[in-house]
Design goal:
The protein is α/β, with parallel strands linked by helices and 231 residues long. The protein has a single domain, classed as NAD(P)-binding Rossmann-like Domain (Rossmann fold), CATH 3.40.50. Helix content is 40%, strand content 16%. The protein has six helices and seven strands, in the order E-H-E-E-H-E-H-E-H-E-H-H-E. The chain has helices at residues 18-27, 59-73, 97-125, 146-166, 184-189, 201-211, and strands spanning 7-11, 31-36, 49-53, 78-81, 128-133, 171-178, 223-226. Helix 2 (59-73) runs parallel beside helix 3 (97-125).
Length: 231
């Protein structure tokens, strides 16, 4: 068990991965502020869960999330940024402008809004953990996934920049890069795939939990692949 008096903000807290991450921190006894557009208090039964509906495409909405967390609990110890999106199947030069913008907004700009709103509070406290969920696919280019991979690759650079800029003030920043995860949505989208090759969301959640632990206090600027058999 890790120390259990932490204040943890989780974006995308009830999604395919986010629900596992949320439950992992709640099981440890942490106070979790779960945020997404459609999150509800009833999504998790724990008394240590607070739902805060947030639109991550709008900076003021994300700023309100951070300010509300600090006003209610006094600080933010950990941020786990899970929210993201996926689109693929087209050559880069055939990618629609709207798809390109959507991938950048969901996978990069949303994280930038979180950084802008949360990092100042962590700097004032002199401590904090920022953990973002990227993608194993972002470690190298992939045909027909251009917009997605570019946005997720940029996310890694954003995380490493946060690490460099804040190491001296006690803040760590790291990315976790899952392979294809065994979620209901992915099984529906790819019913003929070999699910045994996929990564368990619980294992990804455990890697995230470790990065938030005291054991990982000296780890920053890392992009950790959790890819299972798809090395």
């Amino acid at each position: 068990m890790e120390m259990s008096d932490r204040i943890v903000v989780i974006t995308g807290a009830k999604g395919g991965l986010g629900s596992f991450v949320t439950r992992r921190f709640l099981e440890n006894g942490d106070q979790v502020i779960g945020a997404s557009r459609s999150i509800r208090q009833a999504d998790f039964s724990s008394g240590r869960f607070l739902a805060v509906p947030t639109d991550f495409s709008i900076f003021d909405s994300v700023q309100e999330l951070a300010d509300q967390a600090v006003a209610k609990f006094g600080r933010i110890d950990v941020v786990v940024h899970v929210i993201g999106g996926f689109a693929g199947g087209t050559l880069l030069h055939e990618t629609d402008e709207n798809v390109w913008s959507q991938m950048l907004d969901q996978n990069l700009t949303a994280a930038f809004h979180v950084v802008r709103s949360v990092i100042p509070h962590m700097r004032n406290a002199g401590a904090g953990r920022f953990i973002a969920v990227g993608s194993h696919a972002a470690e190298q280019p992939h045909a027909n996934l251009g917009a997605y991979v570019v946005s997720k690759s940029a996310l890694i650079t954003l995380v490493k920049t946060v690490a460099l800029e804040n190491a001296a003030v006690g803040i760590t920043a790291n990315a976790v890069l899952p392979g294809t995860m065994d979620t209901p949505a992915n099984r529906t989208a790819m019913p003929n795939a070999d699910f045994s090759q996929w990564v368990s969301p619980a294992d990804v959640a455990e890697a995230i939990f470790w990065l938030a632990s005291q054991a990982a206090s000296q780890v920053t600027g890392a992009a950790i692949s959790v890819s299972g058999r798809a090395v």
